[in-house]
Amino acid sequence: MTQFFRHLLSTDFMPHSVCLRLPGLIALHAVSDSLIALAYFLIPVSIIQIVHRRRDLVFPWIFLLFGLFILSCGTTHLLSVWTLWHPVYRLDALVKAVTAISSLLTAVLLIRLSPRVITLPSAADLRTTNDRLQAEIVGHRQAEQEVRELNAHLKRSVAERDAAIASLNSYLQRQGAALLHSERDVQFIMDLLPALVAYIDKNGYYRRVNRVYQDWFGRPPQDIQGRHISELLGSEYVDRIQPYLASVLSCKAVSFDAEVRYPAGTRTVNITYTPDCDSDGVVRGLAALTTDITDRKLAERQLQRHADLLDQAMEPLLVWELGGSIEYWNRAAEELYGYSASEAVGRISHELLQTSHSLTLREFEAVLEREGQWAGELIHSTRGGRQIVVESHHRLVVEPNGRKLILESNRDVTERKQNESALRRLNETLESRVQERTRQLTEANQELEAFSYSVSHDLRAPLRSVDGFGRMLLRDYPGRVLDQRGIHYIERMSAATVRMGQLIEDLLNLSQISRTLLRREHINLSLIAGEVVAELSSSHQRPIGRVMIQEHVQAFADPRLMRILLENLLGNAWKFTGKASAPEIEFGCSLSGKESVYFVRDTGVGFDMAHVDQLFAPFHRLHSAQEFEGTGIGLAIVQRIAHRHGGRVWGEGKLGSGATFFFTLGSTDNGDQ
Amino acid sequence: MVTNKLILLIEDNPDDEELTLDALRTGGVKNEIVVAHDGAEALDFLFPAQSSTAYSSTRLPELILLDLKLPKVSGLEVLRRIRSRSTTRHIPTVVLTSSSEEEDINRSYEVGANSYVRKPVEFDEFVQAVQSLGAYWVLFNEGPRI
Hints:
The complex is a heterodimer.
Chain A: H1 2-6, H2 16-20, H3 23-53, H4 60-82, H5 89-119, H6 123-180, H7 183-192, E1 196-201, E2 206-209, H8 212-217, H9 221-224, H10 229-233, H11 235-240, H12 242-249, E3 254-262, E4 265-277, E5 283-292, H13 294-312, E6 317-321, E7 326-329, H14 331-337, H15 341-344, H16 349-352, H17 361-371, E8 373-381, E9 387-398, E10 404-412, H18 414-476, H19 484-515, E11 521-524, H20 525-539, E12 546-549, E13 554-557, H21 559-576, E14 584-592, E15 595-602, H22 634-644, E16 649-653, E17 659-663
Parallel strand pairs in A: 12-14
Antiparallel strand pairs in A: 1-2, 1-5, 3-4, 4-5, 6-7, 6-10, 8-9, 9-10, 11-13, 14-15, 15-17, 16-17
Chain B: E1 7-10, H1 14-26, E2 33-36, H2 39-46, E3 63-66, H3 75-84, E4 93-97, H4 102-111, E5 115-118, H5 123-140
Parallel strand pairs in B: 1-2, 1-3, 3-4, 4-5
């Protein structure tokens, strides 16, 4: 082997040209091999150039190997040319060996590579892929554009926020520097607060308190700071507030009302614990704000008492805010309207009660605001839909904070209203009935007038004829037509006509009493009685006996009618004492309660009380005309006169022991003596 | 006794007319008496031929006895007419009637009655009343000179 390479370039063989001898053949060999060599040397140049340029080649090394194989083939042909004249066959063999190895290696590798090369995409596939990629690229570009715009917007926003944060930061820095970071300032501000303010550490020790503590505990803050809560307020207090402490120590704020015994006295306070926790939820301590609400609680209790009292009121009461809703609703309102306080509070009263009002709610509220109050009737609807009429009073109450409240009280007058309308209807019918009666009465009066006129004129004339012609008969024909008996009959007829005439007269007098107008005056009955007695004594032959007239008996009555009344009573007394041995007549007055009772008493024949009811009936007599003359109209006239004055008349008597007649003249204040 | 005075009796009731005339005659009143039986007749006598000349040939009465309740024209109306005419205004007129109603009496005087006499039911009283008024108005009373 070593010898081979030592004699590699030795020319100890015969050149090919020697064998060939023909110069043409030698030339053909030389030219052909030279051209093949040239071609074989050019091909690798192209391959290298392709590999160099096309970086995306899948298997570049196979191209290089292929280039090497062709290069060695070219070299073999070049040596074939050289060996025509220079027999370096050892070198020629070596080059051939190299060529063989490289071509064999290329072939083997190419065989192994071929299945993978087959799967490589074709040019058509690549075009399709390419088109799709193109489309995707267009889409990507649009998306990119949008992202770019979004980015720009984001950038602006961020810039703005950054500016805001920056200004806030600078502000906080300024403020922080001025206030928060100054220990002295914090204490100053704490001391200003009208409440107990403290910082307590998580173990319950006061770290910092404000000056108010000094007022409540009687110790300076320095003396309180560093002490435990229980030292100041006792362990019983700490036990009591344990749940709240537990809450605040687990980083939850808590607020509660409590009654606490302070050295300065027991107060009702509102305590707020605010936890001081770091971001991990670990508590460092707490801020305690204690506000004195004793007065507020007292006021609340007082308000509650007032509310309880208002609840007891019989009248439905409600309070609502002007332009707002119901705030208070008492028990009577619950009962009247059927809505409980919890249902009514918060509602608009006009809507809840469906108030029927001539004004709109806004107009009504304007009136209330202007006038300060309103009273009148309203129609409300209860929960059950029943309509009720209420007598309503609204009053405007302006609270110290300017809030305008309306206190409304409503009294249910539905029943009264119904009664009123029923009464009104009744009154209307009553009115028409009264008118009807009045009309009837007027008619009756007119008939009575006509009747009286007729009686007065026509009834008497026939009597006069009967009596007149009878008398003329007696006068002109004495003893010629009539004997004594005939004369007697005519005299009886004549007496009857006279009595009939008297009856007519009396009847007219009685009706006259009813028909004449009553004219009351203040009169002295004693004087009238005196005049009547004087007339009686002068017009009759018989002495009147003893007459007693009480002085200054006053009355408020019609003087003409009173004269007729006294004429009848005193006339009766005179008549019925005619047969008495010691006749006595008395006129007077006594007071019975507030009423004046007048009387005429006599000592005459009297009467049986069994017949007392018949005494006052017209033309009813207890005596015969033979005993005592008269038609029986006198007491009927007396009674009618008393009735016309609104009074009454009654009699008391005993047969044979005289009689007393009493009369009153209605309830006037002027009848007293 | 003066007998030339004319008396006008206005009376619708024939009984009353006869009784009145009887009473006047028996009372000595001899004067001529004219009777009118209702208000219209009385007015016809007092104011005859209203359409003719103002001068009346009829003798006017020197005394009128007047009942109130009369057919056609009432006594009060007749009295009102008498008082409204110059020819009859001064003739003494006596209301002689059954009524004693206050209203009748008052209204009669209002219209111008010289006297008001109620006719009593009792004949003797009636005669006395009529004779008295006859004597007074006819015999003693001096009327106006026309």
